[in-house]
Amino acid sequence: MQFKWLLICLCLYACKKKTEPEVVTTKDQFDIFLVAGQSNTLNGAGIVPGIDSFSGGIFQLGRHDGNDFRILEAIEPLEHWDKRPGKIGFGLTFAKLYKDSFPGNNRKVLLIPCGKGSSGFISNEWNKGDYLYEDAVKRINWVIANYPGSELRALLWHQGEHDVGNPDYQERLDRMVKDIRSDIQGWKPPQIFIAGGLVPYWARQDSLRVKQQESIRLLVNRIPFTGFADPEFPFFISKPDNASDQIHYDANGQRELGKRYFSEYTRLRK
Question: What is the pTM for the complete model shown?
Answer without folding.
Answer: 0.91
